[in-house]
Design goal:
mainly alpha; three-stranded antiparallel beta sheet; 3 strands; elongated
């Protein structure tokens, strides 16, 4: 149980049952933080919440969005998690009063429209997708590079090997053919990549198929469908996984310039992620803001 959670707000037995569905501390911490925040603002235990408490919380978040303190994506994420927890408690029975309703869902239905301009993968789905891919180190590494470094499918299949990566004093970067500057590889992603490279066969490309040939975008597309099915989640695209990198950067306070540098886009393009959804070396500092970490498979 998180040390920052206030157990008085939520029935401990209920939380311990709910948290079993998560495979990583990152996902658990995200839910825990948002449930705690809601209860703190409402000033009451989760089992005692009413419709008016949810409306007040919604207005609180809308003001924070208007003030530029959080993005619409962040607000949607919070409501999605609170809806998920409420639905779990209702289905379990015994933790909420008889006749309890999910007051978060009506708001979530309207918020869903805001996500259509820039799709991403919810943190809980990303968690189970990585879990499903953990038995295949190549697939796990590809997902990690999209999720944490923001590489595109074409950039990933175009990698040749260790020679594409350079190590500077402040970390590891990858040289990509169509980017003017190297792309920073976060430390957790580099640890996953190093493990993959230490055990891979020597072929002309970094990632390869069973015959040793270079992968293509169609392979990545089929890979996404296969592992989303194995994870038991809806089918997400590789672009949706990559979008998570930008959303995570904005969620932790990166500027459009920092996020654009990491994603290889202009600031004008990257603002689509900031407004519609979830210092020194800009690319490294932006990633240092992000508290998400991917563990080695």
């Amino acid at each position: 149980m998180s040390q920052n959670f206030e157990p008085g707000f939520v029935n401990t037995e209920a939380w311990n049952l709910f948290r079993k569905r998560f495979k990583s501390e990152t996902t658990e911490a995200s839910y825990w933080s948002d449930i705690n925040e809601f209860c703190r603002i409402a000033g009451k235990d989760f089992e005692d919440i009413k419709r008016d408490d949810v409306e007040e919380y919604h207005q609180n978040l809308r003001k924070r969005v208007a003030d530029g303190r959080i993005s619409p994506l962040t607000m949607t994420k919070k409501f999605r998690e609170l809806h998920s927890f409420t639905q779990f408690l209702i289905e379990q029975g015994g933790f909420l009063p008889d006749g309890a309703e999910d007051h978060f869902y009506p708001y979530l239905r309207t918020m869903a429209k805001e996500e259509k301009t820039a799709r991403s993968v919810p943190v809980e789905d990303m968690d189970v997708l990585l879990k499903a891919a953990s038995e295949n180190v190549m697939v796990y590494t590809i997902l990690t590079l999209m999720y944490r470094a923001g590489l595109t499918s074409s950039e990933i299949v175009g990698l040749n090997g260790e020679e594409d990566f350079v190590m500077y004093d402040d970390g590891v970067y990858v040289l990509l053919a169509h980017r003017r500057e190297p792309c920073y590889i976060p430390e957790d992603a580099w640890a996953v990549l190093e493990e993959y490279m230490s055990g891979r066969e020597l072929h002309p490309s970094l990632f390869y198929n069973r015959r040793g040939g270079r992968l293509n975008s169609m392979y990545i597309s089929r890979m996404m469908k296969k592992y989303c099915t194995l994870a038991g989640i809806k089918s997400y695209s590789a672009e949706a996984v990559r979008n998570c990198c930008a959303f995570n950067l904005f969620a932790y306070g990166a500027s459009p310039k920092q996020a654009a540098g990491q994603m290889g886009r202009t600031e004008l393009q990257i603002r689509r992620y900031n407004g519609s959804s979830y210092q020194g070396n800009l690319r490294k500092k932006a990633n240092d803001l992000v508290k998400l970490r991917v563990e080695k498979p």
